[in-house]
Amino acid sequence: MITANEDDPVEVFAGTIWQAGMVKSLLEDAGIETFMRDQIIGTYYPWWTAPGGAGSITVFVARKNLDEALKIATQYQENIKK
Predict the structure, then answer these.
(1) How far is the C-alpha of 35 from the C-alpha of 18, rounded, in Å?
(2) Which of 5, 13, 65, 81 has CB 3.0 to 4.6 Å from 23, enough for a Cys bridge?
């Protein structure tokens, strides 16, 4: 049986390069290490990384930081709807 490691990467956000950069910055300001995936290919050819090109850039954190990171990402998404 495969068990999850607390340092395994988990996706917490998917969006445009600008949105992903904002979420990454918010997470790092909170002391959570992050990395983004598909910054270049997702910007030039978003339909190659995500269906319809929506959410082509993804932000990942370690599993141990998932709960706090999801709170921050959710709050960001709620704030941009206002």
Answers:
(1) 14
(2) 13
Is residue 37 within 8 Å of residue 60, measured between CB atoms?
A: yes
Distance (Å, whole) CA 56 – CA 48: 8
Tokens at residue 36, please?
């983004």
Would you say 38 and 49 are in contact if contact means Cβ atoms under 8 Å apart?
yes
Query: How many alpha carbons fall within 13 Å on the CB side of residue 19?
Result: 21
Per-residue model confidence as pLDDT tens digits over 24-46: 999 999 999 999 988 877 777 77
Distance CA 67, CA 1 (A): 24
Q: What is the pTM of this model?
A: 0.84
